[in-house]
Write a structure and sequence with these properties.
mainly alpha
């Protein structure tokens, strides 16, 4: 169920931090990795000058460049790249520097990595691309630059989820507009036969169903109570199939009625939604 997925997804940051601190406490990280994690720019520079390999990794094969990109240390990113760090190096799970910078909202670093030749359509082991990560986490400025540099707007992950679906789920309607303007397919279906419109409907009760930490991390604008309505309206105006059914035969209208949002129910009916 996607509700479970949301909880797991929200815990990813916690797991990442646990791995970080356990590695530090156990003394398993090379000096360059440790200095990078703590943002010690001068120390990183010193270690590079002493001949440390810029592609040094931790036990999860996360390079110093990946750590610097995730944490937003642009100066360290520049030092590592100047020393010859592999801009496309991937960790055990396929995570790359560009993916981390896109997820974390570090626009300057995204630009640096792209200029250094980062693969814009790289995917992690789950098939998630940088564009998908930026769309999930609500970073419209990064979505813009990735699209302008040729990111595949319709690239699916391993379960056929797309950037548009994730942006729709979280009510990132400005990103939904950007993706559609870049020719995102509004009627692509995921492994469960669900469209972006269905994902948008599922986002109606996100505030009730997801942990607060998750909502904050995903940059969901909880103050905008119309975000789901706006997202649905944008998808419908772009040609989303208002009568699409998932693998269980449930319609968009049925899902919306179950979610209890009468305003969106009436919007769907105005576009021809049937019982």
């Amino acid at each position: 169920m996607r509700k479970l997925l949301l909880v797991i997804f929200g815990l990813l940051g916690f797991v990442f931090l646990v791995g970080f601190f356990s590695a530090i406490l156990l003394g398993r990280d090379p000096a360059l990795i440790t200095a990078t994690k703590y943002g010690e720019t001068n120390r990183v520079s010193q270690l590079i000058q002493e001949g440390n390999n810029p592609d040094t990794t931790d036990r999860d094969k996360l390079t110093a460049l990946i750590w610097a990109s995730d944490k937003g240390y642009a100066d360290i990113v520049n030092i590592l790249l100047a020393a010859g760090a592999d801009v496309n190096a991937a960790a055990k799970d396929g995570v790359t520097a560009l993916g981390c910078a896109s997820k974390s909202g570090h626009l300057e670093i995204v630009k640096i990595l792209l200029n250094a030749g980062s693969n814009i359509n790289t995917k992690n082991e789950e098939g998630t691309s940088p564009l998908m990560l930026a769309s999930q986490f609500g970073h419209s400025d990064i979505v813009k630059i990735l699209l302008s540099k040729g990111a595949n707007v319709n690239a699916p992950d391993n379960t056929n989820d797309t950037s548009l679906m994730w942006a729709s789920l979280f009510g990132h309607f400005e990103i939904v507009k950007l993706l559609i303007s870049a020719n995102a397919n509004v009627n692509t279906v995921d492994i469960n036969g669900e469209t972006a419109l269905m994902w948008a409907i599922e986002g109606i009760n996100l505030e009730r169903d997801a942990p607060p930490e998750f909502l904050k991390r995903a940059n969901i604008n909880m103050k905008d109570k119309k975000r789901n309505y706006k997202t649905v309206e944008i998808l419908l105006s772009a040609g989303a199939n208002v009568n699409a059914k998932d693998k269980d035969g449930d319609t968009v209208l049925k899902r919306t009625q179950e979610a209890g949002n009468e305003e969106i129910v009436q919007l769907l009916k105005s576009y021809g939604a049937k019982e």
